[in-house]
Amino acid sequence: MGTIKNVAVVGAAGKIGRPIVARLLATQLFTITVLTRDGSKQLAFPEEVIVKEVDYDSVSSLETALQGQDAVVSAMAFEAIDKQKSLVDAAAKAGVKRIIPSEYGNDTLNPKLATVPIYQPKIAIRELCEQKAAENPNNFSWTTIQNASFLAPDWTLDFVVDVKERKADIKDGGDVLFCATTYEDIAQTVAGILTHLEETANRPVRISSVNTTQNEIIALAKELGATEGWNLTYSNTGDLEAEARKRWAAGDHSDEVIAMFINRAFIGEGWGGYFPVLDNELLGIKGIGKSGLRDIVRLAMDRNSLD
Ligand SMILES: NC(=O)c1ccc[n+]([C@@H]2O[C@H](COP(=O)([O-])OP(=O)(O)OC[C@H]3O[C@@H](n4cnc5c(N)ncnc54)[C@H](OP(=O)(O)O)[C@@H]3O)[C@@H](O)[C@H]2O)c1
Fold this sequence. Notes:
By secondary structure, the chain is an alpha/beta fold. Helix content is 38%, strand content 17%. Residues 5-221 form the NmrA-like domain.
């Protein structure tokens, strides 16, 4: 399968794209080309990063940009997942050896999750990757990254438990275990895949920095001083799913409905938000343990310093 030297990154200015570029550069193993949309808000990348403007609606524009690239890492935004169709077509045509399409979430192979409308674009892209790999078995391959929930003071903790405002909607009793992964560990996973091509070919890799529950996060916040003033509501992810399906079918594709589906997927038991078997060791993920989780809870409680 050879080695990977030239890596094109899509969505490099995004939430998970930025740590991925930083980690790949830190390894000093890769030459990084960032693909970005014409007129997109530009981020200042280090000078060794090559930046190319592309048109995601044009396979030929992408194929030209991908000439000479060994791998494509996509951190495309959730709302633009289907734009990766031309990216996968172009990557296969340009002779790219490995593509990591934008997943970074739950187990999209989970049969329950696979029925949820918001995951269909990601599933369609993975199926296209499977098709291209079957057509070019000696050259093209893919890996998806399944990290379940992001774990960051500025994102997940607001979504799952807002420890700064001391409020949470407790789902399914609050003791359902889910995996949560830091941006740094997701970025390391990309580097791990690109240096373990054989072991990661044509499959998802499953990672987790720490496994936790909503009630554990609240308990940690209480230990850290947030003892009183909690505003807790309670819901059932089955009810959220039922309402979301009804509203989605009626044309309501709002963020509120998307969040209901995501909550079902993250926290619903057996829905693909908890991985009993992980690829952490293969990919160099050490995990953060409970003390690392406590540090993130502390940072989230002290969010003024981050805002
Ligand atoms: N598991 C979790 O908890 C979790 C949480 C959030 C996100 N995610 C997943 O992580 C992946 C990346 O999400 P993110 O939040 O990091 O992405 P993001 O910051 O919202 O956007 C990433 C990049 O996508 C590019 N892009 C290209 N075409 C676009 C279009 N038409 N509209 C908007 N952006 C476009 C933009 O780069 P250019 O402007 O340079 O083209 C943008 O910087 C997605 O698959 C998402 O579902 C998972």
